[in-house]
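Proteins fold reproducibly. Take a tokenised chain:

. . .
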Amino acid sequence: MPGPDELVPGAPAWVDLSTSDVDAASAFYEALFGWEADDVVDARFGGYRVFRLDGRRVAGIGMNTDEDPGPPHWNVFLLTFNAATTSGLIEEAGGTVLFEPMVVPARGVIGMAIDATGAVVGYWQPAVVEGFDVFGEIGGAVWFELNASDFDAAERFYAHAFDWSVVRNDGEPRRAVFERGGRDLAGIVDASRTLGADDAPSWSVAFGVADVDEAVERAVAAGAILVRPPWDLTTGRRAGLVDPTGAPFLVASDAER
């Protein structure tokens, strides 16, 4: 992952949780990952808070809104240097802009859209706040992947809207990895065979932990549901969970991707 001083357009710059219960979700993630929640940054819609790890920005949390539809979920925001231009590219590529880019005072410009496959994706034009300070390490987001119902459409969309150039793996399932300068930044997986009829395409976020099995045990004890037991990859170990408010997420031992 690039450092904060190595901003890469199209790369994930921020993640936040849209939830039905900010207090319950905050308590869960603070206990699981050692995060601390700032005081309310934005009092609208039930309040928006920023999680920190050792004083560094790691993620955000806020209430579900009409502009961010669906059940509780983690949002991924991709970096842009011109949110208005990105909005136009999104529409050209077959996506739908959910709201016109909105200025967040003294921080940047935020936008959200539905991509050409039906997944919600955010975009962030930095000003004072470039994005997260913690990523690619234990306690932070370590990987971002779109579970796509239409793999080819997803690849075309992100190439046009966010200038992705990908390395494809045509195994089963097919995968495409967005890389820049030899660094893997995010991916697309062909989920057409695993998504149910009522399952919408979506982005998934994996958070780094030292021990996946131990993290799963603590998460379940705190009210999470284990939806995919720990499994091994060449890069490490992962597990799929749903937090107590209903938002899916992953824990991963491959913190240094």
In short: DSSP finds four helices and 16 strands in the chain. The first helix runs from residue 22 to 33. The CA atoms of residues 172 and 235 lie 17 Å apart.
